[in-house]
């Protein structure tokens, strides 16, 4: 796979490349905002989709029995977690699964705990379902985000019904250690809080960090956790909308299934079923090459920013292909940051405030792109902050 190859994405209905007018007021920017990559997925996925398209009938489809086995094997090999076939429930996407979980396990007015700054749909799904956002703000300590466990316990003790964990964390890039997960898990057990664990970035981890599913730690946590996965970030196929939940607790699983039935969810489409099987069966070699490429992109971006834009500070990511950049030393307000990036740099980045007030003064940059695009993006970032 030639990750340096630039693939033209304009005029493909891409939100990232064609949807900037609505968000940024102009389409003449270099897009490094939405979390999809500018790479072609593994050849095996493309070939499988072509083969399926060559069959002229596109009726209702189902997951093959072998797909469940493939998922089990992936979980065991990548995360050292043995799961049962019956625990796997398909879903269109991780955000959809979060909504199902909130509806199934909480009632209107219940508190739902999140760790901010965090992925915006966490807030949106809680509020759209008439639940209450309860925040456990992360602490930035010497360039690394940490959990305020005293506050975490207070929030669990306050009566929250559900904790939405983000691991690896979007946007700050932390891969929570087993010890951190055990501590959060212990407090959730102590106060009877169920867990929804968004692990969509679980496959994009940089050494020496290791991804640990919180549900794999012990049986109690396994029994109170809904774990969310998808091949979408891993293999750059988010537009196909293929994901799944892993739920060992039969009672919780039945509640989720009932919630799915209420909205008429009847499974994945034919292409989503195809990629779910092929991606995990044949994509590992491509993934390992991708991770090496992304690692070199991170190093390139970090070194460039340190030398050329020293007033900015990169929070070193342990996972994901997203850079969380601290711009507070510029003295610019969030509106001024946005204006500088758009008008001077002609660069589309995610504003930190999208992830909560704790993101004020930060921006998120997607480095999942060919190096020529990354280098141009960094040049524009420098230009945005030049007087």
TrEMBL record:
Its cofactor is pyridoxal 5'-phosphate. InterPro entries: Aminotransferase_I/II_large, C-S_lyase_PatB-like, Class-II_PLP-Dep_Aminotrans, PyrdxlP-dep_Trfase, PyrdxlP-dep_Trfase_major, PyrdxlP-dep_Trfase_small. Residues 36-371 form the Aminotransferase class I/classII large domain. Its EC number is 4.4.1.13. GO terms for molecular function: cysteine-S-conjugate beta-lyase activity; pyridoxal phosphate binding; transaminase activity. It comes from the Bacteria. SUPFAM superfamilies: PLP-dependent transferases. Keywords: Aminotransferase, Lyase, Pyridoxal phosphate, Transferase. Belongs to the class-II pyridoxal-phosphate-dependent aminotransferase family. MalY/PatB cystathionine beta-lyase subfamily. NCBIfam families: C_S_lyase_PatB. This is cysteine-S-conjugate beta-lyase. It comes from Fervidibacillus halotolerans. The lineage of its organism: Bacteria, Bacillati, Bacillota, Bacilli, Bacillales.
């Amino acid at each position: 796979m030639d990750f340096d190859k630039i693939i033209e994405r304009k005029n493909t209905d891409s939100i990232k490349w064609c949807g900037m007018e609505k968000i940024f007021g102009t389409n003449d920017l270099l897009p490094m905002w939405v979390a999809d990559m500018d790479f072609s997925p593994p050849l095996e996925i493309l070939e499988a989709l072509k083969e399926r398209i060559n069959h002229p009938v596109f009726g209702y489809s189902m997951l093959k029995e072998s797909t469940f086995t493939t998922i089990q094997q992936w979980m065991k090999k990548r995360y050292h977690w043995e799961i049962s076939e019956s625990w796997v429930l398909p879903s269109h996407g991780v955000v959809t699964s979060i909504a199902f979980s909130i509806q199934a396990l909480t009632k209107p007015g219940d508190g739902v705990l999140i760790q901010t700054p965090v992925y915006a749909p966490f807030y949106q799904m809680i509020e759209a379902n008439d639940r209450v956002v309860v925040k456990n703000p992360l602490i930035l300590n010497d360039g690394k985000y940490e959990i305020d466990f005293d506050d975490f316990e207070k929030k669990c003790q306050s009566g929250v019904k559900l904790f939405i964990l983000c691991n690896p964390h979007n946007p700050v890039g932390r891969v929570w250690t087993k010890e951190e997960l055990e501590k959060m898990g212990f407090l959730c057990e102590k106060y009877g809080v169920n867990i929804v664990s968004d692990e969509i970035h679980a496959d994009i981890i940089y050494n020496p960090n290791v991804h640990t599913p919180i549900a794999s730690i012990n049986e109690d946590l396994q029994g109170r956790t809904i774990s969310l996965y998808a091949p979408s970030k891993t293999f750059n196929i988010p537009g196909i909308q293929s994901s799944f939940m892993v739920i060992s607790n039969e009672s919780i699983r039945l509640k989720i299934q009932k919630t799915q039935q209420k909205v008429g969810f009847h499974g994945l489409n034919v292409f989503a079923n195809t990629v779910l099987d092929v991606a995990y069966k044949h994509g590992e070699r491509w993934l390992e090459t991708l991770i090496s490429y992304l690692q070199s992109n991170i190093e390139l971006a970090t070194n460039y920013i340190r030398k050329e834009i020293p007033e900015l500070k990169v929070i070193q990511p342990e996972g994901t292909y997203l850079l969380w950049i601290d711009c507070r030393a510029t003295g610019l307000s969030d509106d001024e940051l946005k204006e500088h990036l758009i008008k001077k740099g002609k660069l589309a980045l995610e504003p930190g405030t999208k992830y909560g007030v704790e993101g004020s003064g930060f921006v998120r940059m997607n480095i999942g792109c060919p190096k020529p695009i990354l280098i141009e993006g960094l040049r524009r970032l420098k230009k945005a902050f030049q007087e």
